[in-house]
Specification:
This protein starts with 9 loop residues before the first strand and ends with a helix. The longest helix is centred in the N-terminal third of the chain and has 14 residues. α2 packs across α3 and α7 crosses α8. The N terminus is likely disordered. By secondary structure, it is of the alpha/beta class. Helix content is about 35%, strand content about 15%. The strands form two sheets. Strands 1-2-4-3-5-6-9-10 form an eight-stranded mixed sheet, with helices on both faces. It has a two-stranded antiparallel sheet with strand order 7-8. The radius of gyration is 18 Å and the shape is globular.
């Protein structure tokens, strides 16, 4: 286990229900747990770690189970939401803390929201990036996704069958990631009216609609290499298994159907992000579903990868919100 050296970031692993959770830590002060989305890793918080540390926070970015250097259980059902919540609780305890602020992006936002919902004794505030909070409940997720897109297949449904998306991605991880990141980023996403990259044509592949030939402005070739190297080493199954548990989550969280998150909260979204536009009703419902919301901002001209596309603005909003929280 590594030791902290001044204010430099350190890598270490801690015990958790997953087996092992790898994390990167920087700074000292109140604990802020940073949870990434798909298809990323702790590295998606590389701009936030030093910024939070400089403002007096102990910033900790994890590799979610199934990603990076964290453990990758073999069973598909080992990636259900309540298991990921318990991993987060274990990280807080392993770091010698009793509570933390939890901040997540993409799937990490849903993991963070659920952590705050079911363990308010541990997570005293929650920040959500890109994906709005929607309380548990409603129709079974697989049925909802199956109805989307008409003759086309929604990407979440495409990811459901074990091995199917892996067969598309793993022969060319780097190229697939480059196209995926470009498809959802401002400046490189397909123009209005073009075929939607969130859907798959009959007999086609998801990557058929990805743009090619240019990386998004926020991503250098070297940064893409970091992401690609991790997934080339681990494969994609651990990451994709999160999607394969949405119906299990729906059952597991039935006791919290319609429940609000009452802790202090923040939401940041991108105006060009489908997560923001498709879930606009969820944002409109925040006075009921997030009664502790103190910051809600949709960034003009920003796509899905918000904290990487707009790191300075994200850091400014995030650190100001963190500083405003009760000790």
């Amino acid at each position: 286990m590594a030791e902290t050296l001044g204010n430099a970031p350190i890598h270490r692993s801690v015990s958790a229900p997953a087996g092992r959770i790898h994390l990167v830590e920087q700074g000292s002060g109140p604990l802020v747990l940073l949870v990434h989305g798909f298809p990323e890793s702790w590295y998606s918080w590389r701009h936030q770690l030093p910024a939070l540390a400089a403002r007096g926070f102990r910033a900790v970015a994890v590799d979610v189970r199934g990603y990076g250097r964290s453990s990758k259980p073999a069973a598909v059902e080992a990636y259900r939401m309540l298991d990921l919540v318990e991993d987060n609780v274990a990280v807080v305890e392993a770091l010698g803390e009793r509570s933390a602020v939890i901040v997540g992006h993409d799937w990490g936002a849903t993991i963070a929201a659920t952590s705050a919902l079911v363990r308010p004794d541990v997570f005293r505030a929650v920040g959500l990036l890109s994906v709005p909070y929607t309380p548990p409940g409603g129709p079974r997720p697989s049925e909802v996704f199956a109805r989307m897109g008409g003759a086309e297949e929604f990407y979440v449904s495409y990811f459901q069958e074990p091995g199917r998306a892996e067969a598309e991605i793993e022969p060319d991880v780097r190229g697939w990631l480059a196209g995926f990141y470009a498809a959802l980023s401002a400046g490189t996403m397909p123009p209005p009216g073009a075929p939607d990259p969130h859907f798959v044509s009959p007999g086609g592949r998801l990557r058929d609609r990805f743009p090619s030939g240019r990386l998004p402005d926020w991503l250098s070739e070297q940064e893409l290499d970091v992401y690609a190297a991790e997934f080339e080493r681990t494969g994609m199954t651990g990451a994709l298994n999160r999607y394969r548990n949405m119906d299990r989550d729906w059952e597991d969280l039935a006791a919290w159907e319609g429940a609000p998150i009452t802790q202090p909260s923040l939401f940041l979204g991108g105006a060009l992000d489908a997560s923001t536009t498709w879930l606009s009703e969820a944002i409109a419902a925040y006075p009921v579903t997030l009664p502790g919301l103190t910051v809600s901002r949709v960034l003009d001209g920003c796509g899905h990868f918000l904290q990487q596309e707009r790191p300075e603005e994200t850091n400014r909003l995030l650190t100001a919100w963190l500083a405003s929280l009760p000790a």
